[in-house]
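Problem 12. The chain below contains 187 residues. Write out its predicted structure in token notation.
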Amino acid sequence: MSQNKMLTTEEKEGLLEILESRFLKNMNRHPNLVWENIALRLKHSTPKLFSLYAMESTGGEPDVVSFNEETKEYLFMDCSAETPTGRRSVCYDQEALDSRKANKPHNSAQGMAESMGVKLLTEEEYFSLQTLGDFDTKTSSWLDTPADIRKKGGAIFGDKRFGRTFIYHNGADSYYAVRGFRCYLWV
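Solution.
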């Protein structure tokens, strides 16, 4: 993938094949949507294709989970069973990364999301995702944190244990091998 956020023809074609296959295998996530309409939208959304490619290449397994009738946009979310492998061992944001004096992770969730052109899931979106399956049963994912919590040095994350979705808090500068982040993209 080039640094200018443009995909080669082969990368575009490969991505579209992966997305179509995943879409067809998981119709329960989008029962009333038609792939041809989504494919048409994607073919005319080059910057969005770069973001979806970044989601895919870091292990997110993006899939369509919703359609907004008003804006006519499709919502893609990371649907990998566990938090994406290529986005783990990161603290929450740049401020948290800068505050670490030793053993700094290589990146932050917010920083990576921004470079990918995507957004971290909110609590509400995370709960919505969990209605589509069992996600993060062995891992956890940083979530978009409300400003009042972040001002106090914290950040929130979620996981699913014992058949329930939980939202927790931690210091924003913490990072773990099994914590990454999930994101979404409107196309």
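Discussion. The two ends are 20 Å apart (CA to CA). Students who got a different answer should revisit the alignment rule from Section 12.3.
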